[in-house]
Write the structure tokens for this entry.
Amino acid sequence: MHARTVRGAVRSAAAVAAVTGTLVWAPAATAQPSEPTPSASAAPAETPVPAAGSITITKKDTAGDILPGAAFLLLDSAGQEAGRGKTDAQGTLVFPDLPPGVYRLKETASGSPLHEVAADQDVIVTPGATTRLTITDAFKAAKVLLQAKDDKTGKLLTGATVNIGSGDKTLLTLTTGAKGTASGELPVPSRKAEFWVKQIKAPRGYDLYKTVKTFAAGPAAPVTVTVTNAKTASTPKPDPSGKPADKPAPTPSTPEDKPTHDSSGGTSLAAPGSATPSADPSLPASAESDKTTPKAPKGSLAHTGADATPWLLGVGGLLVAAGSGALIAARRRKPADPVQDSNGETS
């Protein structure tokens, strides 16, 4: 029955087309599919999308001041750009709506001529959470020029070594080269900082500069540090023969009493600085000896002291002269009348 209806419809359409010359499809009934259409409940369920996360950056320097204008670039795990931007007036930058995962954060500019850029770092973003970062930019180092000079002539000296530091830490060690200078980069913790310099090795032929100097330096700023050295006092070189170079002056010896010979062949001693008494040829040797060697008077005490010496010499001279005169008179006197002793004998 259904087949006959369809065939009838086809014949009717063909007849109309033959009359009008135009084929118009107008089925008299709708064909039902032979198989049932699957219901919507049979379709597979979709995987839920995880919640997005975000990154918030706060930018500061080592002194704690905020840094606006610092530029950052964010890359995903495939190395593709996930975001870029600069910190605002409060030093803050936010990367919102980030799929969870591991990202690479790069600082491309510090926004300040006094600061360095921070090193790259990995950041983990978790679903529905905000990852907060505080990134610190260090100050640029100061440029230090060291000079070592002769304190008298100002000549630049080679071989001077100094330590430069702050507090109890040594931050930089420099040694002057052939031109008497040395340069280096000094880490700076703030916009203006105090440092000390101490010489630990002096140039050859010079004394160590023991004074500890201080100076101020700022980020990326040049500073010159100068130390002065005095020449070491020269010492006499040793004699290769082993003898000392400078001999001490001989100590003057005390003049000794020297014997003097008189005209009669006798010998007498003359005191230093005194005249030698002349010998009397008419006196015997014993008298001459008494004359040259005065004896102190009996019963007198010895008198010490330099002021009594001339007096003693004068008294001795008088005694010697008197004795000499008596001996001379006794020799020249002729024998007188014979003297009889108690026994009546004449002598």
Remarks:
- The chain has a mean pLDDT of 75.
- The first helix runs from residue 2 to 20.
